[in-house]
Amino acid sequence: MSTSPLQQETIAADFLASRLLTSHSVSTGIILGTGLGQWVESMDDFTAVDYAEIPGFPRTTVQSHAGRLCAGNVQNTPVLALQGRFHLYEGYSPDEVCFGLRTLAILGVQRLIITNAAGALNPLFQAGEIMVINDQINLTGRNPLLGLSYGEPQFPDMSQLFSSRLADLAHSSALRRGQRLQQGVYMGILGPSLETPAETRMFRQLGADAIGMSTVMETIAAKQMGLEILGLSCLTNKNLPDCMAPTSLEEIIAVGQDIGQRLGDLLSVLIPAIANSH
Ligand code: HPA
Questions:
Q1: Residue of minimum CA distance from atom 7 in ligand 1
Q2: pTM higher than 0.70 for the full model?
Q3: How far apart are alpha carbons 82 and 60 in whole angstroms?
Q4: How many structural domains is the chain composed of?
Q5: For 20-106, where are the alpha helices, taking DSSP H only?
Q6: Residue with the nearest Cα to atom 6 of ligand 1?
Q7: Which residues contact 246 (CB under 8 A, 6 or more apart)?
Q8: Considering the domain boundaries, does residue 262 fall inside one?
Q9: What CATH number does residue 111 fall under?
Q10: What digits encode the pLDDT tens for the residues 133-166?
Q11: Is residue 211 included in any domain, yes or no?
Q12: Of 103, 122, 151, 183, which has the highest C-beta tally within 10 A?
């Protein structure tokens, strides 16, 4: 464990500041989930650094994608993007899962868009839709603030984890494009096994509208660092306990690619809208 809080992340941020950043500060960060890999390269003035080159960054396992930290502009709005993330189910610790996001915050990011792939639990939602996350349930049994060594606040308030201002902007940007977004509660589980019908029934009864294996560590760490957070879930499949259809990772990735296209189009208008909303 590092002796002072966020020491490794600060070293990584100093390295990146010399490698990536232009003179103007970057206030928007994004964590790209399944299916958004190509969108990032559509940014103007695109540059990227492999995670492997960044001091202190977690090393990737064979299963996971290599991963890059990317910089670029979306209609003149500077963005820093994490392409490829680390999951608890791969065996990473909460600190490793949150390393990239904490580095972005040290670099000056104030607003964070977190995207993911999730299974729909709300029977009114359909696979292929995008859900704005308005709250979360962390059912992983882990917490990125464990140890109380990450500075203040040690017990961050979670009464409004996700920004309703950013959620409103997401809905209005989508509606202007003729697209309706769903909204609801995201439940984060450890994985990697998918849910049984009995678990699905229980998770729905606990109040979740969608379920996935990422995001909840990063949002807690981001909130502790004072970031304004928008969460967007790509609903890649639908889980109904009483007519449970088999799901595979391949299917989740394939549908994720398709929604990723639409989510990318939305991000291209949403990011400038967020930047201009201040
Ligand atoms: N369950 C858990 N994680 C997921 C799912 C799911 O159905 N779909 C995409 N990620």
A1: 119
A2: yes
A3: 14
A4: 1
A5: 94-106
A6: 119
A7: none
A8: yes
A9: 3.40.50.1580
A10: 999 999 999 999 998 888 889 999 999 999 999 9
A11: yes
A12: 103
How far apart are the CA of 92 and the centre of ligand 1, in A?
Answer: 19
Q: Domain residues for 58?
A: 7-275
- Supply 114's token pair: 């977190």
Instruction: Find out whether the peptide bond into 192 is cis, omega within 30 degrees of 0.
Output: yes
Residue 1 covered by a domain: no
Q: What is the widest separation between alpha-carbon atoms in the chain?
A: 56
**What is the position in ligand 1's atom list of the atom closest to the CA of 239?**
7
CA dist 179 to 29, 83, 265, 266, Å? 23, 25, 11, 9
Q: In the block, which residue shows the tokens 């096994």?
A: 193
Q: How far is the CA of 212 from the centre of ligand 1 (A)?
A: 5
| Residue 195, domain member (yes or no) | yes
User: Which protein residue's CA is at the shortest distance from atom 3 of ligand 1?
Assistant: 212
What phi and psi values does residue 119 have, to the nearest 5 degrees? -95, 135
Residue 53: how many other CB atoms lie within 10 Å:
13
**The Cα angle at residue 107 between residues 104 and 109, in degrees rounded to 5:** 60
Closest C-alpha residue for ligand 1 atom 2: 212
Helical ranges in 73-120 per DSSP H: 94-106
Residues of the chain with pLDDT under 70: 1-4, 21-24, 61-66
* Binding pocket residue ranges, ligand 1, CB within 6 Å: 117-119, 194-195, 211-213, 236-237, 239, 247, 252
Distance CA 278, CA 249 (A): 39
3-state secondary structure of 259: helix
